C-alpha cells in the first residue's frame, strides 16, 4: 500500500479529467471514531459540514456504505440528496434508487428468528451486545473478557453452521451474521456509480474486514483507501489514523474545479 504523499498525487492526476467522482465512505472507524456502544457513535460536526459542501458541488457524488441498517446510517449522517447503503451494501437509497437485494429480503425472516433465539443465550457472555439490523445482525464483544470472547466466537460458529443460507463474518471486535451472498460494499458502490455517474471515477474508503471485501471487488476500477496501520490490505493506499479522513476529504474538496469548500461551512 502507498501512503499520503502518493495519494495526493493520484488526486491531482484525476481531478482535472472532467469526470465526476463517486466517493464511497464507510461510517464506523472511517467517518466516525469507533466507540464501545454503536448507538453512541457520532459524525463530527466539522465532517458533516464538509460532506455537505462536497454534496453541493458538481464534481462528487457521495455514497455512505455501512454495515448499519439503512434507517440507522441515514439518521447518523443526516445529509439529504446523497446515496446511502446499509447492511454492507444489501440495501440502498438515494437520488434515482431505492433497492434491496432480493435474496437478502427473502432471508430476513431467518435473521429475525435467529436474533430472537440468540438474545437470551448471550446473557452468558457479560458485555456482549446484539445489534439487530433487520437484514443482518451484529454481535459486539468489545466489552467481553478475552477468554469469554473466544468461547463466544466458537458458540456463534456452531449456531450459524446449522443455518442454511447464513454466514458468520468477523469484524472489529464483532461477529456479523448475514445472508450468504456473493455481494459486498464494492458491488454496492459499482451499482450506485452506474446510476449516479455512468462513466465516472470511483473511490472507496474504509477500515474494516468487510471493507476489504469491497477493496478486492473494486480492484483497479476504483481508488481504494484503507484507514489504519499499513498492514496487509487489498487497498491501494492507506491513511494511518481515522482523524486523517477529515483532512483527506478537505484536501479533495479544495482541489475540485468548482471549489465547493470555499464556504465557511466546511469547518476550516
Summarize it.
This protein has 268 residues and is an alpha/beta fold.
What labels would you give this structure?
single chain, 268 residues, alpha/beta, Rossmann fold, Alpha-Beta Plaits, 2 domains, 8-stranded mixed β-sheet, 12 strands, globular, disordered C terminus
Task: Give a verbal description of the structure.
The protein has eight helices and twelve strands. The longest helix has 20 residues, at 102-121. The chain has helices spanning 4-15, 45-56, 70-77, 102-121, 146-161, 185-196, 209-218, 243-255; strands at 21-25, 60-65, 83-86, 91-94, 97-100, 129-132, 137-140, 166-171, 174-179, 201-206, 223-227, 237-239. 42% of the residues are buried. The chain is of the alpha/beta class. Helix 2 runs parallel beside helix 8 (243-255) and helix 6 packs across helix 7. The protein has two domains: 4-101 and 183-266, Rossmann fold, CATH 3.40.50; 103-179, Alpha-Beta Plaits, CATH 3.30.70. The strands form two sheets. The chain has an eight-stranded mixed sheet, sandwiched between helices. A four-stranded antiparallel sheet has the order 6-7-9-8.
List the helices and strands and how they pair.
Layout: H1 4-15, E1 21-25, H2 45-56, E2 60-65, H3 70-77, E3 83-86, E4 91-94, E5 97-100, H4 102-121, E6 129-132, E7 137-140, H5 146-161, E8 166-171, E9 174-179, H6 185-196, E10 201-206, H7 209-218, E11 223-227, E12 237-239, H8 243-255
Parallel strand pairs: 1-2, 1-10, 2-3, 10-11, 11-12
Antiparallel strand pairs: 3-4, 4-5, 6-7, 7-9, 8-9
